[in-house]
Amino acid sequence: DGEIGAIGVERGLGNAAPINTTLSGFVNGVASLNLTWDEVGTIDLNASLANYLGSALSVSGTQAGAGRFHPAYFDTAVTQGCSTFTYAGSAAPVKAGQPFTVTVTANKAGGGITANYAGAANAYLTTLSNAGVTAGLANNTIAAASFANGVGSANVTYEVATPQTALLTLTLRAIDSDTPAVSSSGYTEGTTEIRSGRARISNAHGSELLALPVPFRAEYWNNGWVPNPADICSG
Question: What is the pTM of this model?
Fold first, then answer.
């Protein structure tokens, strides 16, 4: 008979409130209840009972290393390379792609950041893809050490085969190397429109006595080279 105070204490990082509850209703020496831990990591469960049956005796026990707990899912968000889109690189001719930033956030079931998903102790190498396809992407991994307070990011580029490539939209998916893996599939995934662009400088003529304006135009491929009025980045 009696009540036991069950307390969960997290090892290492501590960004969640400790579990602290009372367990009662023992039958034949056994009682149970459901507990929730809303962070990442491993916890130790401690049970203690003071003054058992008024005998002044104290009883306690520990279950070390309960878990490991990991995030329920990721969300991804994209900061475009230029305004509402990102310029692609190309393989032939070789042209560097414009970086765009992908931010990955680790979340618990029901929503909310798992801030302990950070560093090599609790985070894992995370790969970014286009809805599962990594072809064309570069700099598309986030090291475990790059996660802090449940958030990590990478400056990613995308390459097409030739500049004459039609518009396409990337859906940025994150998946880590844990077992089982944590993924953003089925949750919020940021997108970016990829445009293959060029700068066009037209011919100009006029008096040698005056400053000569030279037409400059940013273009992108859309069944031919067309003006790109959304470009607010090019000089």
Answer: 0.86
Nearest alpha carbon to residue 44 among 6, 5, 2: 6
Q: With bands split at pLDDT 50, 70 and 90, how would you rate the model's confidence at 63?
A: confident
* Helices and strands in the chain, H and E counts: 1, 17
Share of the chain above pLDDT 90, in %: 70
pLDDT in tens, 211-234: 999 999 999 999 999 999 999 998
CB–CB of 6/80 below 8 Å?
no
76/187 Cα distance (integer angstroms): 9
Strand boundaries in the chain, DSSP class E: 4-10, 19-23, 41-49, 59-69, 73-79, 86-87, 89-90, 100-107, 126-130, 137-138, 141-142, 151-160, 168-176, 191-195, 197-201, 216-221, 225-227
* Alpha-carbon distances, residue 221 vs 40, 94, 197 (angstroms): 46, 17, 6
Nearest to 86 by CA among 159, 31, 179: 159
DSSP letter (8 states) at residue 180: S
User: Which DSSP letter does residue 99 get?
Assistant: P
Can you tell me whether residue 54 is helix, strand or coil?
Answer: helix
Six token digits for residue 180: 């089982």
Q: What pLDDT, on the 0 to 100 scale, is given for residue 3?
A: 52
Structure tokens at 138: 């570069």
Which of 13 and 210 is assigned the larger pLDDT? 210
Q: Which two tokens stand for residue 101?
A: 């930033």
How far is Cα 52 from Cα 26, in angstroms, rounded to an integer? 13
Structure tokens at 109: 């079931």
